Amino acid sequence: MGFAMNEEKRKLFSAFDILIILIVATASVFALLSQLNRPDDNLSCVIRVEGEVVHSVSLDKLSEETQYVVSGELPVTVVMNETSVYVSSASCPDKLCEHTGKIERAGQSIVCLPAKVSVTLESQNSDLDAVVG
Amino acid sequence: MKKINTLKITQTALISAVALVLSYIEMILPDMPFVLPGMKLGLSNIATMFALSAMSFPSALVVCLTKSLFALLMRGFTAFLMSLSGGILSLFVMYFLLRFKRVGFIGVGVGGAFCHNLGQILVAFILTDSTVFAYFSVLGLASIITGTVTALAVFIILPKVLSLGLSES
What we know:
The structure holds two protein chains of two kinds. In chain A, about 20% of the residues lie in helices and about 30% in strands. Chain A is α+β, with helices and mostly antiparallel strands. Chain A has a domain at about 45-125: mini-chromosome maintenance (MCM) complex, domain 2, CATH 2.60.320. Chain A has a four-stranded antiparallel beta sheet. In chain A, strands 3-4-5 form a three-stranded antiparallel beta sheet. By secondary structure, chain B is mainly α. Chain B has a single domain (about 5-160), classed as Arp2/3 complex 21 kDa subunit ARPC3 (Orthogonal Bundle), CATH 1.10.1760.20. Chain B contains six helices and no strands. Chain B has helices spanning about 5-30, 45-55, 55-75, 75-100, 105-125, 135-160. The longest helix of chain B has 27 residues, at about 135-160.
């Protein structure tokens, strides 16, 4: 009862741990590679609320900076220009989406969890999710 | 009727309190913007892992639930869901890993940290859409570091606490 004594003999690091770390690292690196190999031209900005697309615009067609306000309980203001997209103001308490800063490559995204809003840059000229090679 | 163990209750409460302090420290620490906004060190995982390795699964579950409740009170419902999903999944995985005598503390810590992130991403996916999987790679790599830090802390603290002779016997 109380504090158990059976963990005292456990090692800090063992061969099994290397295996666990390798599994975690491999999964992460695979995920990373699938993100990096995306084409960056013909970007379009897709804004979703709870998974539903509410606004989608091709960045090439924007000649000047435009704003889109996602209305709702927690309004989120998204600013888009020809090369990048960022969240200029959000009414959520933690402001993580604002702190994400500018995104300018396909596959990058800004997520505001409290407002359930996601902003994604998607490449239009490719229907491939990933190019491995 | 099963006898209620006062010592066990007190120890669980003590570790829960430590978990809350660690959660609070983590909350007031600035974000690590150079990595990913919203990424945390996972300091309070030290308390969960300690409860799990020094005490029992039910005790660790209480610590985990207390942490989630704290997140609900301090940061709202979304934070509560994030804390709960990550906490419960990592708890089960750490419990599973601890059953193997040959898995080291670092293995348990990294496995737990990774599944903490995984649980959170899964709930974030339910709340929004598949966009959140973009966070998977960075969070996955980060869990190797944060998991190791957690494991080191538990490895250092555990023998010291056990040597205090707080066991009932």
